[in-house]
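Hi V.,

You were right to ask for the full record rather than a summary. Here it is.
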Amino acid sequence: MLSVFTDPFSNSLMTIFSSGIVALLTAAVFRILIGMRGTGTEKMRGIAHQVRLGAMAFLRREYR
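Predicted structure:
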């Protein structure tokens, strides 16, 4: 009987599964760290709002 750690197919699956778990954990940590940061000054928020409006206008015209 082959051990789980000597079968090449099992090793590939373990590597893929482990990489996926690490990627999800990394994404969660980055999401938490970014969420803890401030939204910036009033001027920065105003610029972000204008960029968002411009992007949405562009997308509306593209999807027509």
